[in-house]
Amino acid sequence: MGVAGIVARMLKVPDGTIRILVQGTERIRIADFVAEEPYLVARVEQLADVVEPSPELEALTHNVQRTFTEIIEQIPYLPEELQLAVANLDESSALSHLIAGALRISTEEKQELLEQVDVAKRLRRLSEILARELEVVQLGSKIQSQVQSEIDKGQREYYLREQLKAIQQELGDELRERIEAANLPEDARKQADRELGRLERLPPAAAEYGVIRTYLEWLVELPWGVTTDDDLDIPHAREVLDADHYDLERVKDRILEYLAVRTLNPESPGPILCFVGPPGVGKTSLGRSIAKALGREFERISVGGVRDESEIRGHRRTYIGAMPGTIIRALRDAGTRNPVFMIDEIDKMGADFRGDPASAMLEVLDPAQNDSFRDHYLDLEFDLSDVMFIATANTLDPVPPALQDRMEVIQLAGYTVDEKLHIAKRYLVPRQISQNGLQRGQISFADPAIKAIIDEYTREAGVRNLERGIGSICRKIARQIAEGELKGKATISAKRARQLLGKRRFFAEQRRRTKDPGVATGLAWTPVGGEVLFVEATAAPGDGKLTITGQLGEVMKESAQAALSWVRGHVRELGADLPEDWFATNDIHIHVPAGAVPKDGPSAGVAMAVALASLVTRKPVSSDVAMTGEITLTGQVLPIGGLKEKALAAQRAGIKRVIVPARNEGDVAEIPQHQREGLEFIRCETIEDALAAAL
């Protein structure tokens, strides 16, 4: 069975072959062959299609059209015009012949479709073939998509790798340029070149890549050869220091001495100073003024509460998250190798299982060692000898002796009332007026108002609470102006200051307590300045016991025992008219008021001896005298510390005369004249000298 066809065209192709275009006309069956030579001749019969219209035939026709349309969309060798032709062909038999002829299916399947005379059966068979072909096409598309995706992925990875290689090369070149420009010392340059070589051999995904790159960036960012020129104009430095700070002559003189030395010897190392004094006396702000006077960069490092040695020396690069210590970080931030470093709260460094940061600080603050300071992270020597280090502390007791030995200690005592008045007028009042949004023409402070704040609302060596009091008044005035209550300028008098600040917080101890025998005025040192201390002694019938109260430490209790022993041994020389058995039949009670505050130290010995002598002789202590000093059982008066702070406390309390150990004469001479104003210092070598002045 086959198809009768007409040869429509015959073409001779240049390669010698012949192409024939044949147009099929009808289905035929060969009955028998008539001749074989010179060509085949056969007798045929025509076979017409069997078409029985039915809903099934219509459904099959639509199904074949739809399936073939889907195949056309996914097979590139089928032209789109074929889709239009199939859509417009309604005759089922012709549709089946068109589709079967267009598909690339096997000859056997094509022959099978040709031999099927029943159009419905032919369409059903064609539908099966089309379904199979569609599945094959879809599977092929899926495979093609996966293959294309893999190819694209490989191409993308290759492209990204090439891009990364280019970026890596560019970054390496950039780092090399920065290393060239950093002016590194020889050792640092060798280390940088070595690490850069390792970096260029590493893939960017390697864990060590980021570590090495960060290390190199730290190396090139440090100011190995960058310095600022010192402003060696001494009169200018004096002006800057005087403009920023009132008094503090000793500190200013030390800075001017340093400038003078730098003028004569530019290679002299930077000093290592330690400002010790109560809070609020201007230690940190003084460091800023020094940097401004010298024309240097200023960096502040707070080491209060630091317990880890690595905070100072840095972490080794073997640790995750390693970074340089605070010294190197501050140098990077300063941008020069000769800044002014303020190391705040050096007395508040701790120590635990992570190391002792105070010991690590020894190398930083040792002029003989800090020219080769080695940070664990850098593992290279860095010269710190050009840095001016200024440490601050409230008290030297917690600072290890070895660290104290490395620093030049400058004591900053508290301020007198007069000094506080000048500081408030020159610095604190203008600053608080500005910070609270006021203008100079809206508020002014009279001197009595500032003195009232100092005397009645603050008790401190520094001026922080004084500034808070001034700020509180400024805020209240600002509120009145904002609410429209106040028109014009507010003049703050002492009375107005009391109204705005409310109930007074502190009362001057004055001299009211010493009118009775057995009460002496002592002087004590605290980390926040000097304090006036009253020592009270009384006797009651008993069996000779000594009672000591007021939350006193062991040293102070021992001073009380020593004072009592001396008085008992010298009762006749004192002129006391007492029975022989008076000490055996009376209990002595020594009390130091403010029992909630712990008190300790040997310097209350003189006050205790004077209070006991006053008790047994019935002579009151002079109301205008205060005293300090350690005593011995033989009646010697030994020197004490903190004399300047104690003298200021006496001045605040209205004391006129201060009994001090004779061996503290040098400390008295160091107190500036204006701070000694109104005070008479009485030097005593023995308890008898103190009693002669006090009773």
Gyration radius (Cα, Å) is 52 Å
Number of strands: 21
Distance between the termini: 152 Å
CATH domain fold name of the largest domain: Ribosomal Protein S5, domain 2
Structural class: alpha/beta
Number of domains: 5
Low-confidence parts, pLDDT < 50 over ≥5 residues?
Answer: none
What is this entry, summarized?
The chain has 695 residues and is an alpha/beta fold. The chain contains 24 helices and 21 strands. A five-stranded parallel β-sheet has the order 5-6-9-4-10, sandwiched between helices. The protein has a four-stranded mixed β-sheet with strand order 13-14-16-15. A three-stranded antiparallel β-sheet has the order 1-2-3.
Can you describe what's shown?
The structure is a single chain. The protein is of the alpha/beta class and 695 residues long. It has 5 domains: 1-48, Roll (Archaeosine Trna-guanine Transglycosylase, Chain: A, domain 4); 51-172, Methane Monooxygenase Hydroxylase, Chain G, domain 1, CATH 1.20.58; 234-411, P-loop containing nucleotide triphosphate hydrolases (Rossmann fold, 3-Layer(aba) Sandwich), CATH 3.40.50; 417-501, Orthogonal Bundle (Helicase, Ruva Protein, domain 3); 512-694, 2-Layer Sandwich (Ribosomal Protein S5, domain 2), CATH 3.30.230. Helices cover 46% and strands 17% of the residues. The protein contains 24 helices and 21 strands. The strands form 7 sheets. A 5-stranded parallel sheet has the order 5-6-9-4-10, with helices on both faces. Strand 20 (657-661), helix 23 (665-670) and strand 21 (680-684) form a beta-alpha-beta unit. Helix 8 packs antiparallel against helix 9. It starts with a strand and ends with a helix. 32% of the residues are buried. The model has no long low-confidence stretch (mean pLDDT 87).
